[in-house]
Specification:
Layout lengths: L11 H27 L9 H15 L2 E4 L3 E7 L2 E6 L3 E4 L5 E6 L3 E4 L3 E4 L5 E12 L2 H6 L4 H19 L16 H16 L4 E13 L1 H40 L7 H16 L16
Helix pairs in contact: 1-2, 4-5, 6-7
Length: about 300
């Protein structure tokens, strides 16, 4: 793998004055030589072989100037050989024959498309994620992969697909992490897998989170009915548990305060009535007993 080398280059403002001096001197010498030659001085024409290259050299030297903004880098390549990376912001100058590749070191967002994949239990789901990444090693980003931006996109999609295959959407076994319930754990796992995949491209993953998670349309209605049924069952369990507790409290209070002495049959009737009132979906309609308790 390539290894990044941070280098320093000459200050661009200092070199600008020197390069302009070379260029203007060459232009002035060329103009004087041409005027002298035109006026009839034949030996002056031979000086063009010196003044013209001098002028061209000044123009070439001006091509070595470049500017860097904060969180930017330039990878310098000379005739196919990597010479180093400049990361200091400002105005710089280097060999004009250097190929200066601009690399942004700023954090970037990558939002994957909604992918249709199967979860761990084989249920088709739709999933998407957002990845915050940045270039850490410019040499690896430029030389170890063909196009690091496309590489990040493809590897991010692959990691999201693998993540969906590794976890169930929901309703896992006891203590099992699912895509729906274990948001933090799933995000950490996605970030770790992305870092392992993108590390060879000199990329650091700062954050990775799911942005969309849903059942595929063909099973969404069936899964919604299942979720509703499970929610109703869970609610009923709480209602029954609360009703039994309230009935027990009522019987204990009646016995402790000696309000009425009930035999087992009447206790059973009272429990049945209270459970109907407390667990019923509709309001109970009271019936007034005008006789005795045993009538």
């Amino acid at each position: 793998m390539s290894q990044e080398r941070i280098i320093k280059v000459p200050n661009g403002w200092q070199m600008l004055g020197f390069n302009l001096l070379v260029l203007l001197t060459g232009i002035a010498a060329t103009v004087v030589t041409i005027v002298t030659a035109v006026s009839g001085n034949d030996p002056a024409a031979f000086f063009l072989f010196a003044t013209l290259p001098w002028t061209v050299t000044g123009m070439i030297l001006l091509g070595g100037h470049f500017a860097l903004q904060p969180n930017e880098a330039r990878v310098l390549i000379l005739f196919g050989s990597y010479k180093g990376t400049v990361v200091d912001s400002g105005f710089h100058w280097t060999n004009p024959f250097m190929n200066k590749l601009r690399i942004s070191l700023r954090a970037r967002n990558l939002e994957s498309q909604r992918l249709k994949v199967n979860d761990k239990r084989g249920n088709p789901i739709e999933i998407a994620a957002v990845v915050v990444w940045r270039v850490h090693d410019t040499a690896e980003a430029v030389f170890d992969v063909d196009n690091y931006v496309d590489y990040v996109k493809i590897q991010a999609e692959t990691a999201v697909r693998h993540l969906a295959n590794s976890y169930a959407y929901d309703h896992g076994e006891e203590g099992e992490i699912t895509l729906r319930s274990g948001v933090d754990e799933v995000s950490t796992a996605l970030q770790a897998e992305l870092q392992a995949r993108l590390g060879k491209a000199g990329v650091v993953v700062d954050e990775a989170r799911l942005t969309h998670l849903a059942y595929a349309p063909e099973i969404a209605n069936a899964m919604l009915r299942r979720q509703q049924a499970e929610a109703i069952i869970a609610a009923r369990q709480k209602i029954v548990h609360g009703a039994v507790t309230m009935v027990q409290m009522a019987l204990d209070d009646l016995a402790a305060k000696q309000v009425v002495d009930l035999d087992n049959e009447r206790k059973a009737t009272m429990v049945s009535n209270l459970l109907v009132v407390l667990c019923g979906e509709h309001d109970a309609q009271p019936i007034i007993n005008t006789g005795t308790l045993y009538a």
